[in-house]
Amino acid sequence: MPHPTVAIIGRPNVGKSTLFNRLVGKRLALVDDQPGVTRDRREGDANLLGLEFRIVDTAGFEDQDVATLPGRMRVQTEAAVEDADVALFMVDARAGIVPLDEEIARWLRVTSTPVILVANKAEGRAGETGVIEAMALGFGDPIPLSAEHGEGVVDLFDALRPYVDREDGSPEESEEQAEDGPLKLAIVGRPNAGKSTLINRMLGQDRLITGPEAGITRDSIAIDWSWTDGDGNERPVRLIDTAGMRKKARVQEKLEKLSVMDALRAIDFAEVIVLLIDATRGLEVQDLKIADRALQEGRALVIALNKWDVAENASSLFNGVKGALDEGLAQVKGVPLMTVSGATGKGIDQLIKVAFETRDAWSRRISTGQLNRWFERAIEANPPPAPGGKRIKARYVTQVKSRPPSFVLFGTRVDQIPESYRRYLVNSMRKEFGFGAVPVRLTMRAPKNPFDHDKN
């Protein structure tokens, strides 16, 4: 499905191309102080806080005969607006409303395209009068914006969302898309945890050098493999073996330092991280540090107790490690804990199955409609607090990306929401949408009021 189209229209030199460049994230349109730099329609793929749409930068609208160059430019601009799903009508708040702005407004009022009024260059006190004057153009309250400095983008998002946010995604569709490529699975852990032995057992061959000496593996090695699931389907996997990561104080040799850096880069590259722990040695602080690093990088995490075939007091060991993980990884509860044996192969199929399921949750995308139905129930069951007696008005939440699932909550004073309430929302979201223990990002965005100034 093609993205909705947004056209930027306004008289020359009000900042249309500056906004265009900000939305596409590149300097595709030339920008200069002199008017009339843009002549042809320029299009680009825009992303505004997760909203994706097609943006069209138009020439400055001038009231000239169609036989002249400015007149032909105006015809192109009119065509762009007619083809758009919504038009951003931009005025210069510092210069105030001029007759040409009023002429454009009269034309826009008779078009069928919805119009959002934007007062650019509204930063500071110099733009206040222009913002107020723009109300008389007949398109409601203008959105105060600074295209150059990025101020006012939250309010712009709020205004554009009804026109460009199409709910055409679902968790099931995202899971199917995630299954298309090979599972990028990195095996990490302390030295001599049995990483290379485990991978050799998966492959059914001695592909990697192993031995009792710690630190044999130095480079991160990627190997393509095919795993057969319980239904007989071949599932592609890219296995990444990494160097053992010791405590920083014990990493002395230059070569070992480079190996550890390479292992950290492998974490960044992978989709799912398997932290392999030697069951005969138990959980150590370094294991928690490796797990925390993977979660901080936004990777899906599975923890496996290796050498389970020779572990003593297995039941108490498993429960002890599980309790220590829940306490040591407070930001994510319930990380999958598996038992495997690289020597016998026991538990490997279940480990890979859980890794695929974890990637599905990590790749999941929830439609805005589903999100906000959950959100209404969540705040009704537990309303946000009122710091200092001022009520927080949470308006809506939207997903801006997956892998890991990342969301933005919009509303008045939501930046004052305490961490405890943010955790409540994240945990509720995990339960509602089946995210399990994958990292879930939730940030708060409150619109800035351009008329609020420091009283100093």
UniProtKB/TrEMBL annotation:
<comment type="subunit">
    <text>Associates with the 50S ribosomal subunit.</text>
</comment>
<feature type="binding site">
    <location>
        <begin position="10"/>
        <end position="17"/>
    </location>
    <ligand>
        <name>GTP 1</name>
    </ligand>
</feature>
<feature type="binding site">
    <location>
        <begin position="189"/>
        <end position="196"/>
    </location>
    <ligand>
        <name>GTP 2</name>
    </ligand>
</feature>
<feature type="domain" description="EngA-type G">
    <location>
        <begin position="4"/>
        <end position="168"/>
    </location>
</feature>
<dbReference type="Pfam" id="PF01926">
    <property type="entry name" value="MMR_HSR1"/>
</dbReference>
<dbReference type="InterPro" id="IPR016484">
    <property type="entry name" value="GTPase_Der"/>
</dbReference>
<keyword id="KW-0342">GTP-binding</keyword>
<feature type="binding site">
    <location>
        <begin position="57"/>
        <end position="61"/>
    </location>
    <ligand>
        <name>GTP 1</name>
    </ligand>
</feature>
<dbReference type="InterPro" id="IPR006073">
    <property type="entry name" value="GTP-bd"/>
</dbReference>
<feature type="domain" description="EngA-type G">
    <location>
        <begin position="183"/>
        <end position="363"/>
    </location>
</feature>
<keyword id="KW-0378">Hydrolase</keyword>
<dbReference type="InterPro" id="IPR015946">
    <property type="entry name" value="KH_dom-like_a/b"/>
</dbReference>
<protein>
    <recommendedName>
        <fullName>GTPase Der</fullName>
    </recommendedName>
</protein>
<dbReference type="InterPro" id="IPR031166">
    <property type="entry name" value="G_ENGA"/>
</dbReference>
<dbReference type="InterPro" id="IPR005225">
    <property type="entry name" value="Small_GTP-bd"/>
</dbReference>
<feature type="binding site">
    <location>
        <begin position="306"/>
        <end position="309"/>
    </location>
    <ligand>
        <name>GTP 2</name>
    </ligand>
</feature>
<feature type="binding site">
    <location>
        <begin position="241"/>
        <end position="245"/>
    </location>
    <ligand>
        <name>GTP 2</name>
    </ligand>
</feature>
<dbReference type="Pfam" id="PF14714">
    <property type="entry name" value="KH_dom-like"/>
</dbReference>
<feature type="binding site">
    <location>
        <begin position="120"/>
        <end position="123"/>
    </location>
    <ligand>
        <name>GTP 1</name>
    </ligand>
</feature>
<comment type="function">
    <text>GTPase that plays an essential role in the late steps of ribosome biogenesis.</text>
</comment>
<comment type="similarity">
    <text>Belongs to the TRAFAC class TrmE-Era-EngA-EngB-Septin-like GTPase superfamily. EngA (Der) GTPase family.</text>
</comment>
<dbReference type="InterPro" id="IPR032859">
    <property type="entry name" value="KH_dom-like"/>
</dbReference>
<keyword id="KW-0690">Ribosome biogenesis</keyword>
<dbReference type="InterPro" id="IPR027417">
    <property type="entry name" value="P-loop_NTPase"/>
</dbReference>
<keyword id="KW-0547">Nucleotide-binding</keyword>
<dbReference type="GO" id="GO:0016787">
    <property type="term" value="F:hydrolase activity"/>
</dbReference>
<keyword id="KW-0677">Repeat</keyword>
